Amino acid sequence: MKAVSFVEVGKLELRDAEKPTIQEPDDVLLKVTTTAICGSDLHVLAGRIPGMMEGGILGHEFIGIVEEVGPEVKNFKPGDRALASFLIPCGKCWFCQRKMFGQCEDVRVFGYGIFVGDINGGQAEYVRVPAADLCLHHVDDRLSDESALFAGDILTTGFHVADIAGIKEGDTVAVVGCGPVGLFAIQAAQTFKPSAVYAIDSVDQRLEMAQGFGAIPIDMRHQNAVVTCQDVTEGRGVDVVLECVGAAPALIPTFDMVRPGGVVSVIGVHSDPEATFPLQMMFNKGIDLHMGGIANVPGRWDRVLDLIGKGELHPESIISHRMKLDEALKGYELFEAREAMKVVLTP
Fold it and tell me: Distance between CA atoms of 329 and 53, rounded to whole angstroms?
């Protein structure tokens, strides 16, 4: 089968790989119908996520048709259409028993290398899905692959950060960083009926797309985001900030953007071991800081798929390029050059 395979840091190849087989009794063999390139796949390519071995297959956003099931699989049968979660919880630990799947003590991730399970990903014609009853979701026939695909990762991640922020009807919300997750955070925030959502970024395409989702753009090249958020709220600051970048220079200003007693909710992936925080100011303002951690996809995707079905979320709207799996390496080039918002691949 064809598969996007890791060669070494900075190099991928489209290779002929061995078709996977059922290895564990709770496995499903899925024939992939649609997959996507995620920004975090670039981290694997660049070596920022260690542990990917030569020949490993990338990809953690995919949907397909069940071809074969292990003897302990109860919820799926051959021919079923299924969406995969990017993370594979164990289903047995203290956290999984309480449906806190993002905090699973033995979590695995598709296409991320040996430190998170060494499970091959879905940028291939077939993929083995462990713990299938937990990390696969049936897909309503009324939803296209493109509509359902991102509920397995970035759409539910965007919803996760908005949900844990506790956005109330009439709130003012600022979203810092309008990449794919930030754009989905904007869409998700709108489902809570805020009075305004402000989109903060410096890339024209992202700001235009955010505006299309009903957000008010703040272009960091020409506006001071902190001052603007204060000006539009009579000096108070916004009620909620959703940080979707994952860098201290993006996070620290949010404590000035948010009002006293407000919420800063973080889903940008922070890898720096430490940062300097304005603790006195945060204490005096009584800021509620929520660190999103690994998004609880299996705990939230029922709600997200329901919102898609009701037409309140529009995930396919961020797709910029549709390509064949044979063209995947070109898709990576476009993504690295920031010429693509989201690349979807089909066999």
Answer: 18
